[in-house]
Amino acid sequence: MSAPATTRSARPGEGDGNATAARLLRSAAKKSYDPDVDIDWDAPLVEGAIWVPEHRVSLYGTELWERLTPEQRIELGKHEACSVASVGLWFETLLMQRLLKDFYADDPTSDRAQWALTEVADECRHSQMFARLVHRAGVEPYGPIPFVHQLGKLFSVVNWGPAAYASILVAEEVLDRLQREQANDDRIQPLMRQVNRIHIMEEARHVAFARDEVTRGLAGLSRAELAYQRFMCAFTSFFVVRSLINPKVYAAVGIDPAEGRRAALANPHHREMIRFGGEKILAFLDEAGMIAGPGQALWKKSFLLEK
Ligand SMILES: [Fe+2]
Ligand SMILES: [Fe+2]
User: Fold this and answer.
1) How far is the CA of 210 from the centre of ligand 2 (A)?
2) What is the DSSP track for 218-266?
3) What does pTM read for this prediction?
């Protein structure tokens, strides 16, 4: 039995899932990145360059921030950038599990299934890239706190369809919005900017696919299933957003992790950063009918939704 030489195009009546996937496959074939080649990992880091804009550091504007020297502020920013990168690769791993399960259940020759594998391949490279970034920065790969790391094992078991793709969208778009802000800021460490640029380019396709999955997945759900999907999305998004800054980062500048965490969660600048990151995707999810029901309190608690 011989495999088809090329991916077949969507059959009539297969729905938009395959049509979108076919378009994204063409785009991926034209432009994809290889961080091994497209990033100069041996280039020296720029002395004194920042890793994130100051106003995006979680303690910016707090009393604790005022006590830090300029060098400590850069150091904290570096640790936070690496925390976000390591949490990003953790969630990419969960997304890959979901995509592989979808591929497993699908016709492997369909455009949608082919796209699932293409996105897994993208995320494999991203996760390698984020891990190398953290290693190059000389920072611990913090990831989420141990409880959330364990909880993540359930992600692809309890999340499927719209809830899975909507929470993936929240993670991808929050990261994307912050990365876009930094990609053209020449005060930022060049290695960090290049990683951001590559990620932005490839995420645009992932976002298009996930938006399509959410819109189609929500159509025609029963009331009970809709309530479940809405709650799981809020639940997962809350833990993703709360995990971005691992409290251990504060110890890098001599701040007690619990004290740093408390100050960050109470910091209006930090809350605003989360709201800014989620602004566009929350508008989309709201319009799609995902933001309602018992998950509402979690959306607010996460700072993605204003009280
Ligand atoms: Fe990614
Ligand atoms: Fe992605």
Assistant:
1) 9
2) HTT--HHHHHHHHHHHHHHHHHHHHHSS-GGGGGGGT--HHHHHHHHHH
3) 0.92
Q: Give me the residues of the chain with pLDDT under 50, please.
A: 1-14
The region, left, alpha or beta by phi > 0 then psi within -120 to 50, assigned to residue 169 is alpha
Side chain identity at residue 100, one-letter code: L
Closest CA to 123 of 92, 154, 78: 92
User: How many angstroms separate the alpha carbon of residue 198 from the centre of ligand 1?
Assistant: 9
* Closest by Cα among 191, 286, 61 to 305: 286
Distance from Cα 284 to the centre of ligand 1, integer Å: 20
CA distance 295 to 282: 13
The per-residue pLDDT for range 21-31, each reduced to its tens digit, is 999 999 888 88
Distances (CA, A) of 16 to 12, 161, 236, 271: 10, 15, 26, 37
| Tokens encoding 233 | 């999305």
The closest of 224, 97, 85 to 159, measured between CA atoms, is 97
